């Protein structure tokens, strides 16, 4: 049985060069779709960005996954 491992890109890393200014949300989604190698965009949008992220996600067929920077600590019990 094969398991798929979706690969995403964090939205702040979507630029042609490090020195470039941050592209618009729509442009970032267009760049990811054009690259053709990522399955989703990873971003926890700021409140004022949510509608724009939803629109770009639908337009380019790329889901937004947001789990970065949230971690859960689990205590392990030993017998």
Task: Throw out a few tags for this protein.
79 residues; alpha/beta; 3-stranded parallel sheet; 2 helices; 10% strand; globular
- The class by helix and strand makeup works out as alpha/beta
Low-confidence stretches: none
Mean pLDDT over all positions? 87
Shape annotation: globular
Topology as H/E string?
A: EHEHE
Q: Which sequence of strands runs across the widest sheet?
A: 1-2-3
Into how many domains do the coordinates divide?
1
Strand content: 5-15%
Total DSSP helices: 2
Give the N-to-C terminal Cα separation. Answer: 33 Å
Largest sheet: 3 strands, parallel
Cα radius of gyration in angstroms: 16 Å
**Count of extended strands:** 3
Helix content: 25-40%
Fold and architecture overview:
This protein is of the alpha/beta class and about 80 residues long. The chain has one domain. The protein is about 30% helix and about 10% strand. The chain has 2 helices and 3 strands. It has helices at about 25-35, 50-60; strands at about 10, 40, 65. The protein has a 3-stranded parallel sheet with strand order 1-2-3. Helix 1 (about 25-35) packs parallel to helix 2 (about 50-60).
């Amino acid at each position: 049985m094969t398991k798929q491992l979706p690969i995403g890109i964090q939205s702040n890393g979507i630029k042609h060069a490090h020195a470039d200014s941050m592209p618009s949300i729509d442009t970032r989604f267009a760049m990811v779709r054009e690259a053709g190698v990522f399955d989703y965009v990873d971003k926890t949008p700021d409140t004022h960005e949510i509608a724009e992220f939803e629109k770009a996600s639908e337009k380019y067929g790329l889901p937004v996954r947001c789990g970065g920077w949230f971690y859960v600590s689990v205590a392990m019990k030993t017998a």
